[in-house]
Amino acid sequence: MYEIRTDLALEAREKYEQDHVEIKGVRLDKETIADDIRVTTMVIETENGARSMGRPKGSYITIEAGSMDDEDEHYHRIISERLAQMIRQLSPEGERLSALVVGLGNREVTSDSLGPKVVDQLFVTRHMMREFGSDIFGKQQKQVSAIVPGVMAQTGMESSEIIRGILAETKPDFVIAVDALAARSTKRLNRTIQITDTGIHPGSGVGNHRHPLTKEALGIPVLAIGIPTVVDAATIVNDTMNNLLEALAEHAPYADMKRSYRTLDEVEQYELVRELLAPHLNTLYVTAKDIDASVNRLSVTVSDAINLALKEDS
């Protein structure tokens, strides 16, 4: 059975909302903080909820910002400050904590370079604190180190193997992993940020499963921050078919065509689309034409948020 690929917990939850199904053990809170900036907090509280959602228990916070792909420093500052609050909210409590920020992804592939570009702009402090003392930046500054582990094709190693080696040597209190994600909806490309305290399975949204970066795997809390930068071809074709059928349904001869297609559920529609696509298109993923500018802009927003969060205590 083909599963609709998405890294966003919010999109997995939306399928149940469309079918008017209530999931026990999953709590949902929504908030609007600006005209087109919405925050959705989903907390999976029980094992039953985790099984239904196909995701581990924990908190999943999503920022949806319709203008996040635009150049507006004030707008991006609002998002950075709110994301910083979320990072502090999900981070372990305590003074003098140290954090390792991991920039996942391939620097040579623009749509997958978000993590490395965020790390490039971080305020790392571990080396200076070790040399000059922990009070050099004031008591509120956390000790920050960062790493870009690359991808297996470049290093021959799993990111998790590299990170475990670093953890054994540097012993941080928690990890913040940053990665590009895959979305179900084209409207969320470069306009959505997800942060969760459940860690991350790198590459899962594009069917490229790697070893997980989670508290269970690494032994310390792992926060994951991601922005969807790609969507699979089947999503685009399916959305186009739905829009086309909506338009044609206004003409009586085509109404039956729409009704027939809508008798299929969402997964069945995707399976049909994949069968119609040529085999070499089944693994095609698509990104925006200006993805280079988008990733540069979004990496600044995320790095600013991390810098703010690790400089201030909750």
Alpha plus pi helix count:
12
State the low-pLDDT regions, or none. Answer: none
Distance separating the two termini: 44 Å
**Biggest sheet features:** 9 strands, mixed
Query: Element order, helices and strands?
Result: HEEHEHEHHEHHEEHEHHHEH
Number of strands: 9
Note the overall shape. Answer: elongated
- Beta fraction: 15-25%
| Residue-averaged pLDDT | 86
What structural class should be given to the helix and strand makeup? alpha/beta
Helix percentage range: 40-55%
The radius of gyration computed from the alpha-carbon positions, rounded to a whole number of angstroms, is 21 Å
Structure description:
The chain has about 325 residues and is an alpha/beta fold. Helices cover about 40% and strands about 20% of the residues. It has helices spanning about 10-20, 45-55, 75-90, 115-120, 125-130, 150-155, 160-170, 215-220, 235-250, 250-260, 265-275, 290-310; strands at about 25-35, 35-45, 60-65, 100-105, 145, 175-185, 190-195, 220-230, 285. Strands 1, 2, 3, 4, 5, 6, 7, 8 and 9 form a nine-stranded mixed sheet that branches. A hairpin with a 2-residue loop joins β1 and β2 (about 35-45). The longest helix has 21 residues, at about 290-310. The mean pLDDT is about 85.
Give a quick set of tags describing it.
alpha/beta, single chain, 9-stranded mixed β-sheet
Write the layout of secondary structure elements.
Elements (H helix, E strand, L loop, with lengths): L8 H10 L7 E9 L2 E8 L2 H7 L4 E8 L7 H18 L7 E6 L10 H7 L5 H7 L10 E5 L4 H4 L3 H12 L3 E10 L8 E5 L18 H4 L3 E11 H16 L3 H11 L3 H11 L8 E2 L4 H21 L3
Parallel strand pairs: 4-5, 4-6, 6-8
Antiparallel strand pairs: 1-2, 2-3, 3-7, 7-8, 8-9
